[in-house]
UniProtKB/TrEMBL annotation:
This is BMP family protein. It comes from the Archaea. The keyword Calcium does not apply. Residues 35-352 form the ABC transporter substrate-binding protein PnrA-like domain. It is found in: Cell membrane. Its main location: membrane. Keywords: Cell membrane, Lipoprotein, Membrane, Signal. It is a lipid-anchor. Coiled coil: none annotated. It comes from Natronoglomus mannanivorans. InterPro entries: BMP_lipoprotein, Peripla_BP_I, PnrA-like. Belongs to the BMP lipoprotein family.
Length: 354
C-alpha cells in the first residue's frame, strides 16, 4: 500500500487537517501585524528534528497568516533567559515561543515579571511554586512514550524476521535493537520506556541496547554509539537525540542496517539517509507552534492552559520512511494498526519510565 493509505490505516488520516494547517491557497493576511519571537532549544536550527519542526510551524504561520517572526538560537540553556527577556521586554512581540523543556525555569520567573506578554512553552509546563499554572503561558506537552511504543513495536517485529530492502537488512541471529538518547531527561526516558515496551510487546525475548550521548549536537558520538550497537548485533537503532542522531544514520548506512528517526519524518528531512530510515516517531512540534500563533491571530489566546497530545490527538505518530512505503510486510502494518488502537482504547498500558 502507498504511504497515505498506510497512515490512514493507522487511524491518523485526520493528521493532514491537524498538521498541514493550510488555510487557503492564497493565505490569510489577518496576522500581518502579529510579530512572534522564537527561542529554540539548545542545538539550534539545522537539527533536521525538534527545532526544525518548530521552525516549520512558524514558517507555515507566516505563509498562512502573514505574521512576522524573529529567531533566536541559544548556544546553551544559559542563553535562554537572555533571549526570553529580550523578546518580552520589547513592545514589538505579540507572542514568545519557547521551544524545549530547558526553558521552563527561566520562563516561570520571566512570564510572571512580564505579565502582559503572551508566551508558549513546548515540552514542559510552567507552574508557580504553589503548583498553579502561570496565567500568561500556554503549554504544550506530548505523550512521546505512545509513539515510541509504536516504533518499538515495528523494530521488534522487524528484528525477528529476515528483511532486506534498499541495500540494508536484518542480519543478526538473535532479535536485537538499540536506542540512542541525547541527554538523560524525563522526556527522553519516556521515549526509551515506550520503545522498549513496544519491542517487548512484539517479542519479550528481544535484546534492547540503550546508551546516551550526553548531547543534542554531537553526531560523532552518536555514530560511535550506534556503530557499537550494530557491531554487537542490533538490526535497528532508534534515536531521540536531536542533531546527534545524524551520526546514528551514518552508522546505519555503514553497517547496512536500519535506523528510526525522531520528531520529523527524517526520511525526508535527512533524505540522504532515507535508504536506512525505516520509520520515524514524528512529534508534531510544528502543530503546537502553529496553533499557538493562530490563537493570537484569532485573538483567543488562552494562557494558563495545557495541551496534552498523544496518538489519539495526532500529536505523535509512527510514520514509515519514504523508501519503505509499501515495502513492509503486511503482518507488520496490521500489527501496528492493532497496537495503535489498543493504546488509544486503553487496552495497552504504555510505561512512561524505564
Amino acid at each position: 500500500m502507498d504511504r497515505r493509505t498506510f497512515v490512514a490505516s493507522l487511524g491518523v488520516g485526520a493528521t493532514v487537517g491537524l498538521a498541514g494547517c493550510v488555510i487557503g491557497d492564497n493565505g490569510d493576511e489577518s496576522g500581518e501585524d502579529i510579530n512572534v519571537g522564537m527561542v529554540y532549544s539548545s542545538g539550534g536550527l539545522g537539527d533536521e528534528s525538534f527545532n526544525d519542526m518548530a521552525h516549520n510551524g512558524v514558517e507555515q504561520a507566516e505563509a498562512d497568516f502573514g505574521i512576522s517572526y524573529q529567531n533566536a538560537e541559544p548556544d546553551s540553556p544559559a542563553d535562554m533567559n537572555d533571549y526570553q527577556r529580550e523578546f518580552a521586554g520589547s513592545d514589538e512581540y505579540d507572542l514568545v515561543c519557547c521551544i524545549g523543556f530547558d526553558h521552563v525555569t527561566d520562563l516561570v520567573q520571566n512570564a510572571q515579571e512580564f505579565s502582559d506578554q503572551q508566551f508558549v512553552l513546548v515540552d514542559a509546563v510552567a507552574e508557580t511554586e504553589d503548583g498553579d499554572l502561570v496565567e500568561n503561558v500556554d503549554n504544550y506537552v506530548f505523550r512521546e512514550h505512545e509513539g515510541s511504543f509504536q516504533v518499538g513495536h515495528l523494530a521488534g517485529l522487524l528484528t525477528t524476521m529476515e528483511f532486506d530492502h534498499g541495500g540494508a537488512s536484518t542480519a543478526s541471529e538473535d532479535p536485537h535493537i538499540g536506542f540512542v538518547g541525547g541527554e538523560e531527561t524525563a522526556i527522553i526516558d519516556r521515549f526509551e520506556a515506550g520503545y522498549i515496551a513496544g519491542a517487548e510487546y512484539a517479542d519479550e525475548d528481544i535484546e534492547v541496547s540503550t546508551a546516551y550521548a550526553g548531547s543534542w549536537d554531537d553526531p560523532g558520538t552518536g555514530q560511535e554509539i550506534a556503530t557499537t550497537m550494530y557491531d554487537n548485533g542490533a538490526d535497528i537503532v532508534f534515536h531521540a537525540a536531536g542533531a546527534t542522531g545524524g551520526g546514528v544514520f551514518e552508522a546505519a548506512q555503514s553497517a547496512e542496517r536500519y535506523a528510526i528517526g525522531v520528531d520529523d519524518d527524517q526520511s525526508i528531512s535527512a533524505e540522504g539517509f532515507s535508504d536506512v530510515i525505516v520509520a520515524s516517531m514524528v512529534k508534531r512540534v510544528n502543530t503546537a507552534v502553529y496553533e499557538s500563533i493562530e490563537s493570537v491571530v484569532d485573538d483567543d489566546f488562552e494562557g494558563g492552559s495545557v495541551e496534552d497530545l498523544g496518538l489519539e490527538e495526532d500529536g505523535v505518530e509512527a510514520v514509515v520512511g519514504q523508501d519503505f512505503e509499501g515495502e513492509l510486510p503486511e503482518e507488520i502494518t496490521d500489527a501496528l494498526v492493532e497496537s495503535r488502537e489498543g493504546i488509544i482504547d486503553g487496552d495497552i498500558d504504555v510505561p512512561e519510565e524505564t
